Amino acid sequence: MKILYGVQGTGNGHIARARAMSQALRRYDVSVDFLFSGRNKHKYFSMEEFGDYQTRRGFTFLTHEGKVDYLKTGMNNSVPTFLSEINQLDLSDYEVVVNDFEPISAWAAKKQNVPCVSISHQNAFRFSVPQKNANWLDRQLIKNFAPSDFQLGLHWYHFDQPILPPIVHISSDLVDNLAYVIVYLPFENQHAIVSLLTRFHNHQFVCYHPNNVEQVQIDNIIMKPLCHQTFQADLHRCDGVIANGGFELPSEALTLGKKLLVKPLEGQFEQQSNAATLESLGLAKSMDFLDASIVREWLDLKQAEKVTYPCVASGIAEWLVAGNWHCSEKLQQSLWERVDFPSYASV
């Protein structure tokens, strides 16, 4: 089986899931090529896992100081380029397209009648799961941004819906809590983050940000450039995580038993929904802006307990290679049966 795996490159969470799926698929007699879109090629990092991967411009959103900038987003995206990239992508060598909310490969598969299997957190919003501030356009984007024939949705809890637990790409046997907090708020102003964290002189922070070009120390903060390997090492050793409202990093933090504080991107319903869901499940705290009072309260909280998730990537890989994509009920049941939540979770 030859697979083209399309990955939305705007956020690192999609890439983390693809990294886990790449390793899981290696156990089978399949050939996988990767295509990423939504980010300039030179801004990808730690991509050795994906071999000779392809990139496309695709569609993405732009932000400014923690908010989606709709004007800049509209001006930055080119419909003619998007259509051209779809028309130029030849899928004749592939038996199936696997897709994580990546529009070029999805639309090319639709046009060329190649089966498309979608694996993403966004697919969970096709069902009755908690949503916050979702409008008609948001719902249309979820359904039509990257169309597919078969969908697997991922979420932290099943909500009695036909979805799966998260794909978590970590090695949980390396956990060693040290007295620092890892901070990853890529959509926030770098100086605003520093201004917030330096208020808490008795706490140590390790802050990753796209604008960090080298490692430097500012008072109680170590600023580090983006790197998958060093980020994972720091994530395993920290005792807490402050992150945006994405899906993959909170999933990793929950699996490692790190207490979690999330600040969702304003104007992005998925992140707003994620933050509200984590709070309602009792798995994290959230803040609507860089709120020092909430950070102070959160820092005083005791250490979290782990959420135990099975190896979802392995289960999906086996299901995918078997080829019976119409039926995923057994996969759903077998995976959720192995999930264990902390005693304080509201599930």
Automatic annotation (TrEMBL):
**Pfam families linked to this entry:** Glyco_trans_1_3
Fetch the InterPro entries from UniProt.
MJ1255-like
Instruction: Extract the SUPFAM superfamilies matched here.
Output: UDP-Glycosyltransferase/glycogen phosphorylase
Query: What is the designated name of this protein?
Result: Glycosyltransferase
Show the taxonomic lineage: Bacteria, Pseudomonadati, Pseudomonadota, Gammaproteobacteria, Vibrionales
